Transcriptional regulator, xre family (Leuconostoc inhae), 280 residues
Amino acid sequence: MINVEKFIHTRKRLKMSQMSLCINICTQATLSKFEKHRQVPAVDIMILLCERLGLTLNDIFPIHVTLKTTSNEQVLALAMKALFYQNLVKYHQLMTQVDIDNLLDSEQSTYQLLQYFSLVFFQKNDVKATKLLKKIDVSQFSQLQQLLFYAITIHYYYQQGFFNEAEKIFDDVWRHQKNLMVADRSGFQAAIIYLLAQYQMSLKNYKYAMMLATYGINFTNDSDSTYFLENLFWLLIEAGDIWHNQHFIVNEMINNVRMIAKFHKNESMLNKINQRKKDI
């Protein structure tokens, strides 16, 4: 069995509350579920929680059920979390720590997918993204990785001016996303939903963008995560501006965005909030 008792004992010995242990790692609800034997957090979260307590994964997981991870896998898990939080400084720092020459096939897929996401969506570097596409073997991706890949590709095609191709992929990704039966807490589905919503926002389909953003907010709540949550709220704010929503509603959503962005260290979103203040 997982040695949750050792985890709890160490936390209490260090006089750390659940709330203080969780800061910048996960929600208190996630930690509470783990300590109550109800749910094991994702590997990247467990690594950070254990590090903060001075423990290792081997201290918590018996040898026969230890989460066997390579150093590359651990770095990539943290890099993915940083990218999904849009803490881009930390993401780039972690990606430089990846031992590229010793990547396993599964690690190679994750490494390429993270690069593709960053190049297309955050850096908008279509030249490098095109070169990377020639190396990517989509058949090696898991189902969720494939869906995320195609959700990113919607934006790649849109930025290239291939609007018909982007629209076709959107329809396929949205149909498959709705039919997914997995209980995903890795952030992949939140990323997919956000990319779909942002695409509709780019097309100025504001009602559709708001519907997808609301769907995404409900999903993150159900999956007990905060991946892309500030972005989804921000889409509601931007789309809602078209109908001149009441100020107190907008201000409440902005406060939510600010709080989550600070938690994620999402400087880009914090800059958007500050710019909005200046424009008003």
Q: What stands out?
A: The chain has a mean pLDDT of 89. The chain is about 70% helix and 0% strand. Residues 4-65 form a domain with the 434 Repressor (Amino-terminal Domain) fold (CATH 1.10.260.40).
